[in-house]
Amino acid sequence: MPRAVIENMRDLPLPDFSDYFAEVEASLYADRIHAGLPMEFSRGCWWGERSHCLFCGLNGGSMTYRQKPAGQAAAEMIEMSARYGSSRIEAVDNIMAIDYLEKALPHLTALPEKLAIFFEVKANLKRHEVEKLAAAGVRWIQPGIESLDTRVLKLMRKGTTSAHNVQLLKWCRQYGVRVSWSLLWGFPGECDAWYAEMASWLPLLHHLQPGPAVRLRYQRYSPYHYTAEKHGLKLLPAAPYRYVYPLSERDLSEQVYYFEDSEDHDVGGHFTPRDENRPGLNAVAKGIDAWLKAWRGPTFSMLSMQDNGDEIIVEDTRAIAIEREHRVRGLEREILLAADEGSPETRLCDRPGAANVMQGEIDEAIANMIARKLIVRLDARLVGLALWHPYTPILPLTAFPGGYLDRRSTPVALPRE
Ligand code: SF4
What we know:
Residues 35-247 form the Elp3/MiaA/NifB-like radical SAM core domain. This protein is α/β, with parallel strands linked by helices.
């Protein structure tokens, strides 16, 4: 059935959480609950309007992007924070409005006491944009990273590249912004060799924030669902629904949100991924496990650098480090600086320190930087992996802007009768 759709976001009222906060205050757990304020500033997705990510069913029939004006969004955050005495704000939007970077964040940066804000964002943010987010209190984001292989990203129409994603993870570690992301796999048309390639360089990223590997699920309203045939898919309602709802397959098909490809089912209708025999994917799964383990602490590894104008001193505490300290000069220093911006390899000779240098020498210097594990070559770009010293420490999990429940093991003392 068609639903009513809000066209003008600016007219939506602020949410009223007063009953919730009254209950929290009266609760025995009041001192353990650090509530976050869920707020909505936009609906739909401006990227999906241009190029709908094939797996995404988030917006149903209303992808058209509608947003609150930037100034109003900032003012509402400030007002809600004052009203409920919490600086934690979780934006529930699918994607942050483009003009918030320039028009909403400065109001928040100017606050004497920063808010702690979460936003979902597009992954192709540049360094100065991540810096702006952090300065405004947006210290936790969920970017649509989804993969670290450009060919997989292209398959899903994500509009980003592997280099964008690694750069974003680097800038987030640089400015102390927490990142929630996942590596999706199982896209129609993907090739196992791509995953084998990805697995070979994952250990280089152990100083950056990891995300779990998650199998793609087919969602209603996604292009994979409404053009299934085009992608070689025959979608059936996901198996668990059958155990929950006593409905015919046809009724389920008309109602459920998650689907599985019939190729992934055996004759009994049980889920058996056709991707079982995939050495490349298995290597990525192991690589991600090792990366997640490296991030369980107590200390995180680091790859950072300082430049004195003549020499870059790199400190490397990753498990994969060749040496703890590197001193990089001359042409190699020039390459490291270019790679920090994720430069295309062909533009290297435009740099002052690399002009008039023979291509053979440049190739040798690049090979040396790669062998020292300080840069990675992704789609003909050189991507530097080191952060600049000093960097901002990453937030603890307890700082999640959506709220935090302190699960101390000591029981709460019950009031006497
Ligand atoms: S996955 Fe994110 S960016 Fe892509 S269409 Fe959906 S909401 Fe938009």
